[in-house]
Write a structure and sequence with these properties.
With about 375 residues, this protein is α/β, with parallel strands linked by helices. It has 9 helices and 24 strands. The strands form 5 sheets. Strands 3, 5, 6, 7, 8, 9, 10, 11, 13, 15, 17, 20 and 22 form a 13-stranded mixed sheet that branches. It has a 4-stranded mixed sheet with strand order 19-21-23-24, with no helix packed on it. α1 packs across α2.
Protein backbone atom coordinates (compact mmCIF):
# COMPACT_ATOMS: atom_id res chain seq x y z
CA UNK A 1 0.00 0.00 0.00
CA UNK A 2 1.38 3.41 -1.02
CA UNK A 3 2.02 5.80 1.85
CA UNK A 4 1.24 9.51 1.55
CA UNK A 5 4.02 11.69 2.91
CA UNK A 6 3.91 15.39 3.71
CA UNK A 7 6.91 17.33 4.96
CA UNK A 8 8.41 20.79 5.13
CA UNK A 9 11.57 21.01 3.08
CA UNK A 10 14.26 22.95 4.93
CA UNK A 11 18.02 23.01 4.67
CA UNK A 12 18.04 19.87 6.84
CA UNK A 13 16.55 16.91 5.00
CA UNK A 14 14.34 14.35 6.81
CA UNK A 15 16.30 11.66 8.70
CA UNK A 16 14.55 8.70 7.10
CA UNK A 17 14.58 7.97 3.35
CA UNK A 18 11.40 9.06 1.59
CA UNK A 19 10.26 7.83 -1.79
CA UNK A 20 9.02 10.85 -3.71
CA UNK A 21 5.75 10.15 -5.50
CA UNK A 22 2.81 12.17 -6.77
CA UNK A 23 1.19 11.56 -3.37
CA UNK A 24 4.09 13.22 -1.55
CA UNK A 25 3.41 16.82 -0.52
CA UNK A 26 6.49 19.03 -0.21
CA UNK A 27 6.20 22.51 1.27
CA UNK A 28 8.94 24.99 0.40
CA UNK A 29 9.37 27.81 2.90
CA UNK A 30 12.30 30.05 3.92
CA UNK A 31 14.56 28.17 1.55
CA UNK A 32 16.70 28.46 -1.55
CA UNK A 33 16.94 25.40 -3.80
CA UNK A 34 18.80 24.71 -7.02
CA UNK A 35 16.71 24.84 -10.17
CA UNK A 36 17.50 21.16 -10.82
CA UNK A 37 15.99 20.05 -7.51
CA UNK A 38 13.09 22.46 -7.95
CA UNK A 39 11.99 20.91 -11.24
CA UNK A 40 12.44 17.37 -9.93
CA UNK A 41 10.04 18.22 -7.12
CA UNK A 42 7.61 19.80 -9.59
CA UNK A 43 7.58 16.66 -11.74
CA UNK A 44 7.50 14.06 -8.94
CA UNK A 45 5.57 15.55 -6.00
CA UNK A 46 2.80 17.89 -4.96
CA UNK A 47 4.56 21.19 -4.22
CA UNK A 48 3.29 23.96 -1.98
CA UNK A 49 5.07 27.33 -1.98
CA UNK A 50 5.35 29.18 1.32
CA UNK A 51 7.14 32.42 2.20
CA UNK A 52 10.68 33.44 1.21
CA UNK A 53 11.36 30.87 -1.51
CA UNK A 54 13.99 31.29 -4.20
CA UNK A 55 15.79 29.18 -6.79
CA UNK A 56 19.38 29.42 -7.96
CA UNK A 57 21.73 27.76 -10.41
CA UNK A 58 22.59 24.12 -9.74
CA UNK A 59 26.26 23.53 -8.89
CA UNK A 60 27.37 19.90 -8.51
CA UNK A 61 29.98 20.68 -5.85
CA UNK A 62 27.58 22.66 -3.64
CA UNK A 63 24.47 21.93 -1.60
CA UNK A 64 21.23 22.17 -3.54
CA UNK A 65 19.36 23.39 -0.44
CA UNK A 66 20.16 26.47 1.62
CA UNK A 67 18.43 28.76 4.03
CA UNK A 68 16.79 31.67 2.22
CA UNK A 69 18.93 34.31 3.93
CA UNK A 70 22.10 32.61 2.63
CA UNK A 71 21.06 32.91 -1.00
CA UNK A 72 23.97 32.76 -3.41
CA UNK A 73 22.06 34.69 -6.07
CA UNK A 74 23.74 32.77 -8.87
CA UNK A 75 21.75 33.53 -12.05
CA UNK A 76 19.67 30.66 -13.37
CA UNK A 77 19.63 29.42 -16.96
CA UNK A 78 16.01 28.48 -17.61
CA UNK A 79 15.25 26.66 -20.83
CA UNK A 80 12.52 24.32 -21.97
CA UNK A 81 11.30 22.97 -25.29
CA UNK A 82 9.14 20.07 -24.08
CA UNK A 83 5.81 20.19 -22.28
CA UNK A 84 5.85 19.46 -18.55
CA UNK A 85 3.86 16.66 -16.92
CA UNK A 86 0.29 17.25 -15.80
CA UNK A 87 1.45 17.12 -12.17
CA UNK A 88 4.04 19.84 -12.79
CA UNK A 89 1.42 21.99 -14.52
CA UNK A 90 -0.91 21.59 -11.54
CA UNK A 91 1.89 22.62 -9.18
CA UNK A 92 2.63 25.73 -11.23
CA UNK A 93 -1.04 26.69 -11.40
CA UNK A 94 -1.35 26.59 -7.59
CA UNK A 95 1.66 28.81 -6.99
CA UNK A 96 0.93 32.37 -5.85
CA UNK A 97 2.04 35.09 -8.29
CA UNK A 98 5.61 36.39 -7.83
CA UNK A 99 6.24 33.84 -5.07
CA UNK A 100 9.60 32.42 -6.22
CA UNK A 101 12.58 34.75 -6.19
CA UNK A 102 15.37 34.37 -8.72
CA UNK A 103 17.87 36.09 -10.95
CA UNK A 104 17.95 34.77 -14.51
CA UNK A 105 20.94 34.73 -16.82
CA UNK A 106 18.77 33.63 -19.72
CA UNK A 107 15.27 32.21 -19.94
CA UNK A 108 14.25 30.59 -23.21
CA UNK A 109 10.74 29.25 -22.87
CA UNK A 110 9.06 27.32 -25.67
CA UNK A 111 6.72 24.91 -23.91
CA UNK A 112 3.35 25.47 -22.30
CA UNK A 113 4.63 24.53 -18.85
CA UNK A 114 7.56 26.86 -18.52
CA UNK A 115 5.70 29.75 -20.13
CA UNK A 116 3.11 29.51 -17.37
CA UNK A 117 5.76 29.74 -14.66
CA UNK A 118 6.82 33.26 -15.65
CA UNK A 119 4.10 35.09 -13.62
CA UNK A 120 5.02 32.93 -10.60
CA UNK A 121 8.62 34.13 -10.56
CA UNK A 122 9.77 37.20 -8.66
CA UNK A 123 12.55 38.06 -11.06
CA UNK A 124 15.14 40.53 -9.81
CA UNK A 125 16.85 40.80 -13.16
CA UNK A 126 17.32 38.83 -16.35
CA UNK A 127 19.74 39.32 -19.22
CA UNK A 128 17.53 37.74 -21.87
CA UNK A 129 13.93 36.56 -21.65
CA UNK A 130 12.70 34.72 -24.75
CA UNK A 131 9.15 33.39 -24.89
CA UNK A 132 7.89 31.58 -28.00
CA UNK A 133 4.33 30.28 -28.20
CA UNK A 134 3.27 28.57 -31.41
CA UNK A 135 -0.18 27.59 -30.10
CA UNK A 136 -2.84 29.80 -28.53
CA UNK A 137 -3.20 27.31 -25.67
CA UNK A 138 0.42 27.95 -24.68
CA UNK A 139 -0.51 31.35 -23.21
CA UNK A 140 -4.15 30.69 -22.29
CA UNK A 141 -3.41 30.29 -18.57
CA UNK A 142 -1.51 33.57 -18.36
CA UNK A 143 -4.20 35.48 -20.26
CA UNK A 144 -6.91 34.02 -18.03
CA UNK A 145 -5.39 35.34 -14.79
CA UNK A 146 -6.77 38.56 -13.34
CA UNK A 147 -3.60 39.90 -11.76
CA UNK A 148 -0.86 41.39 -13.97
CA UNK A 149 2.76 40.49 -13.32
CA UNK A 150 6.12 42.21 -13.54
CA UNK A 151 9.51 40.76 -14.45
CA UNK A 152 11.92 43.26 -12.90
CA UNK A 153 14.91 44.61 -14.81
CA UNK A 154 15.30 42.94 -18.21
CA UNK A 155 18.22 43.51 -20.55
CA UNK A 156 16.47 41.94 -23.55
CA UNK A 157 12.92 40.63 -23.86
CA UNK A 158 11.77 38.80 -26.99
CA UNK A 159 8.17 37.66 -27.43
CA UNK A 160 7.28 35.66 -30.54
CA UNK A 161 4.02 34.56 -32.13
CA UNK A 162 1.22 34.01 -29.56
CA UNK A 163 3.60 35.04 -26.76
CA UNK A 164 3.17 38.65 -27.95
CA UNK A 165 -0.25 38.64 -26.30
CA UNK A 166 1.19 38.29 -22.78
CA UNK A 167 1.88 42.03 -23.02
CA UNK A 168 -1.74 42.31 -21.87
CA UNK A 169 -0.71 40.94 -18.47
CA UNK A 170 2.85 42.24 -18.33
CA UNK A 171 3.59 45.50 -16.59
CA UNK A 172 6.61 47.52 -17.65
CA UNK A 173 6.53 50.58 -15.41
CA UNK A 174 9.09 52.94 -13.97
CA UNK A 175 8.33 51.80 -10.43
CA UNK A 176 8.14 48.14 -11.40
CA UNK A 177 10.56 47.12 -14.08
CA UNK A 178 12.59 48.23 -17.05
CA UNK A 179 13.40 46.67 -20.42
CA UNK A 180 16.45 47.72 -22.40
CA UNK A 181 15.40 45.97 -25.63
CA UNK A 182 11.87 44.76 -26.36
CA UNK A 183 11.39 42.72 -29.54
CA UNK A 184 7.95 41.55 -30.66
CA UNK A 185 7.55 39.28 -33.67
CA UNK A 186 4.42 37.70 -35.14
CA UNK A 187 4.29 35.65 -38.33
CA UNK A 188 0.49 35.24 -38.41
CA UNK A 189 -2.38 37.71 -38.04
CA UNK A 190 -4.01 35.61 -35.32
CA UNK A 191 -0.89 36.00 -33.17
CA UNK A 192 -1.85 39.63 -32.49
CA UNK A 193 -5.64 39.33 -32.64
CA UNK A 194 -5.93 39.13 -28.84
CA UNK A 195 -4.26 42.53 -28.45
CA UNK A 196 -6.04 44.17 -31.38
CA UNK A 197 -9.42 43.05 -30.03
CA UNK A 198 -8.90 45.01 -26.81
CA UNK A 199 -10.89 48.22 -26.44
CA UNK A 200 -8.42 49.73 -23.99
CA UNK A 201 -4.80 50.53 -24.93
CA UNK A 202 -1.88 48.46 -23.71
CA UNK A 203 0.37 50.64 -21.58
CA UNK A 204 4.09 50.01 -21.52
CA UNK A 205 6.54 52.07 -19.57
CA UNK A 206 10.30 52.24 -19.52
CA UNK A 207 11.51 50.66 -22.77
CA UNK A 208 14.71 51.97 -24.32
CA UNK A 209 14.66 50.13 -27.65
CA UNK A 210 11.58 48.60 -29.26
CA UNK A 211 11.50 46.43 -32.38
CA UNK A 212 8.24 45.27 -33.98
CA UNK A 213 8.41 42.68 -36.75
CA UNK A 214 5.84 41.66 -39.35
CA UNK A 215 2.28 41.43 -37.94
CA UNK A 216 3.53 42.80 -34.61
CA UNK A 217 3.83 46.20 -36.32
CA UNK A 218 0.04 46.47 -36.16
CA UNK A 219 -0.04 46.52 -32.34
CA UNK A 220 1.29 50.07 -32.50
CA UNK A 221 -2.42 50.85 -32.69
CA UNK A 222 -2.79 49.69 -29.09
CA UNK A 223 0.55 50.49 -27.46
CA UNK A 224 0.83 53.52 -25.21
CA UNK A 225 3.92 54.77 -23.40
CA UNK A 226 3.37 56.20 -19.93
CA UNK A 227 3.87 59.96 -19.83
CA UNK A 228 6.17 59.84 -16.81
CA UNK A 229 8.58 57.45 -18.53
CA UNK A 230 11.49 58.40 -20.72
CA UNK A 231 11.30 58.47 -24.50
CA UNK A 232 11.99 55.46 -26.68
CA UNK A 233 15.60 55.71 -27.80
CA UNK A 234 15.16 53.52 -30.88
CA UNK A 235 11.96 52.38 -32.59
CA UNK A 236 12.39 49.86 -35.40
CA UNK A 237 9.50 48.61 -37.54
CA UNK A 238 10.01 45.89 -40.13
CA UNK A 239 7.45 44.21 -42.39
CA UNK A 240 8.25 41.81 -45.22
CA UNK A 241 4.68 41.65 -46.61
CA UNK A 242 1.95 44.19 -47.38
CA UNK A 243 -0.43 42.20 -45.19
CA UNK A 244 1.70 42.94 -42.14
CA UNK A 245 0.77 46.64 -42.22
CA UNK A 246 -2.76 46.37 -43.63
CA UNK A 247 -4.37 46.78 -40.19
CA UNK A 248 -2.70 50.14 -39.56
CA UNK A 249 -3.33 51.41 -43.08
CA UNK A 250 -7.03 50.56 -42.80
CA UNK A 251 -7.43 52.88 -39.80
CA UNK A 252 -8.51 56.48 -40.30
CA UNK A 253 -7.09 57.71 -37.01
CA UNK A 254 -3.36 58.45 -36.67
CA UNK A 255 -1.02 56.46 -34.43
CA UNK A 256 0.66 58.50 -31.70
CA UNK A 257 4.11 57.24 -30.73
CA UNK A 258 5.25 60.10 -28.48
CA UNK A 259 8.95 60.92 -28.21
CA UNK A 260 11.41 58.87 -30.24
CA UNK A 261 15.15 59.48 -30.41
CA UNK A 262 15.83 57.25 -33.41
CA UNK A 263 13.44 55.63 -35.88
CA UNK A 264 14.09 52.96 -38.51
CA UNK A 265 11.36 51.76 -40.87
CA UNK A 266 12.24 48.76 -43.05
CA UNK A 267 10.60 47.33 -46.16
CA UNK A 268 6.77 47.57 -46.19
CA UNK A 269 6.81 49.22 -42.76
CA UNK A 270 7.73 52.49 -44.50
CA UNK A 271 4.13 52.72 -45.72
CA UNK A 272 2.83 53.35 -42.17
CA UNK A 273 4.83 56.59 -41.91
CA UNK A 274 1.89 58.84 -42.94
CA UNK A 275 -0.07 57.38 -40.00
CA UNK A 276 2.56 58.08 -37.34
CA UNK A 277 2.43 61.14 -35.09
CA UNK A 278 5.44 62.28 -33.06
CA UNK A 279 5.54 64.89 -30.30
CA UNK A 280 5.96 68.42 -31.65
CA UNK A 281 8.97 69.10 -29.42
CA UNK A 282 10.74 65.90 -30.51
CA UNK A 283 14.11 65.95 -32.28
CA UNK A 284 15.28 62.67 -33.79
CA UNK A 285 18.96 61.84 -33.83
CA UNK A 286 18.40 59.33 -36.61
CA UNK A 287 15.62 58.77 -39.14
CA UNK A 288 16.05 55.91 -41.62
CA UNK A 289 13.78 54.55 -44.35
CA UNK A 290 15.37 51.30 -45.52
CA UNK A 291 13.46 49.75 -48.39
CA UNK A 292 13.45 49.01 -52.09
CA UNK A 293 11.56 51.06 -54.66
CA UNK A 294 8.41 48.90 -54.65
CA UNK A 295 8.06 49.22 -50.87
CA UNK A 296 7.48 52.99 -51.26
CA UNK A 297 4.44 52.73 -53.56
CA UNK A 298 2.05 53.83 -50.80
CA UNK A 299 4.17 56.85 -49.85
CA UNK A 300 4.52 57.93 -53.48
CA UNK A 301 0.73 58.26 -53.62
CA UNK A 302 0.87 61.01 -50.98
CA UNK A 303 1.07 64.71 -51.84
CA UNK A 304 4.42 66.47 -51.73
CA UNK A 305 5.41 67.71 -48.26
CA UNK A 306 2.31 66.11 -46.75
CA UNK A 307 4.00 63.65 -44.36
CA UNK A 308 5.13 65.41 -41.19
CA UNK A 309 8.22 63.89 -39.55
CA UNK A 310 9.46 66.87 -37.52
CA UNK A 311 13.00 67.81 -36.55
CA UNK A 312 15.90 65.51 -37.45
CA UNK A 313 19.65 65.79 -37.00
CA UNK A 314 21.21 66.35 -40.39
CA UNK A 315 23.79 63.59 -39.92
CA UNK A 316 21.13 61.01 -39.06
CA UNK A 317 18.79 61.67 -42.00
CA UNK A 318 18.83 58.64 -44.32
CA UNK A 319 15.97 58.77 -46.83
CA UNK A 320 16.08 58.05 -50.59
CA UNK A 321 16.17 61.21 -52.68
CA UNK A 322 12.95 60.37 -54.52
CA UNK A 323 11.01 60.11 -51.27
CA UNK A 324 12.20 63.29 -49.56
CA UNK A 325 9.81 65.52 -51.51
CA UNK A 326 6.89 63.71 -49.89
CA UNK A 327 8.11 64.57 -46.39
CA UNK A 328 7.88 67.72 -44.34
CA UNK A 329 10.82 68.02 -41.97
CA UNK A 330 13.46 70.29 -40.49
CA UNK A 331 17.10 69.28 -40.51
CA UNK A 332 19.03 70.66 -37.55
CA UNK A 333 22.74 70.93 -36.82
CA UNK A 334 24.19 70.88 -33.35
CA UNK A 335 26.39 73.87 -32.57
CA UNK A 336 28.24 75.00 -29.47
CA UNK A 337 25.83 77.88 -28.97
CA UNK A 338 22.73 75.83 -29.61
CA UNK A 339 20.91 74.51 -32.64
CA UNK A 340 20.71 75.97 -36.10
CA UNK A 341 17.68 74.87 -38.10
CA UNK A 342 17.77 74.21 -41.83
CA UNK A 343 14.66 73.80 -43.96
CA UNK A 344 13.65 70.45 -45.34
CA UNK A 345 14.70 69.29 -48.78
CA UNK A 346 11.21 69.97 -50.07
CA UNK A 347 11.77 73.68 -49.43
CA UNK A 348 15.45 73.98 -50.30
CA UNK A 349 14.94 75.50 -53.74
CA UNK A 350 12.63 78.16 -52.32
CA UNK A 351 15.16 79.02 -49.63
CA UNK A 352 18.01 79.18 -52.12
CA UNK A 353 15.99 81.47 -54.43
CA UNK A 354 15.20 83.75 -51.49
CA UNK A 355 18.83 83.94 -50.44
CA UNK A 356 19.92 84.63 -54.05
CA UNK A 357 17.38 87.46 -54.31
CA UNK A 358 18.63 89.03 -51.07
CA UNK A 359 22.22 88.92 -52.32
CA UNK A 360 21.20 90.52 -55.62
CA UNK A 361 19.33 93.33 -53.85
CA UNK A 362 22.27 93.92 -51.51
CA UNK A 363 24.68 94.00 -54.46
CA UNK A 364 22.44 96.45 -56.35
CA UNK A 365 22.23 98.71 -53.31
CA UNK A 366 25.99 98.70 -52.93
CA UNK A 367 26.44 99.62 -56.60
CA UNK A 368 23.97 102.48 -56.19
CA UNK A 369 25.88 103.90 -53.23
CA UNK A 370 29.11 103.76 -55.18
CA UNK A 371 27.52 105.69 -58.08
CA UNK A 372 26.35 108.37 -55.68
Amino acid sequence: REVCHSFLLTQDLPNEPILLTEKTTVTLSNIEVSEKLFFVLLEKTKVTIGERVSITKHVDSENCIREHGMAREIPVWLEGHNALSSLALENIERMPPSSIGCSLKEARLYSIGLINIVPKLRINEVEWLLVVATEKEDVATILAQDQPFCVGYVETMTLKDYAVSILLKLRIRKDCCEVKLLTLGATKKEHVSEILSQEKPVFIGRVETMTLKNYAVSILLKLRIHKDCCEVKLLTLGATKKEHVAEILSQEKPVFIGRVKEMVLAKYAVSVLPKLRINNDNTMEKFVLSADEWHFSRILEEKDKSIEVGRIRRGGFDVPEGIRRKLRYDLVDEETSGEATAVGDGEVEEAVDGERKMLEERSSSQRGSHLD
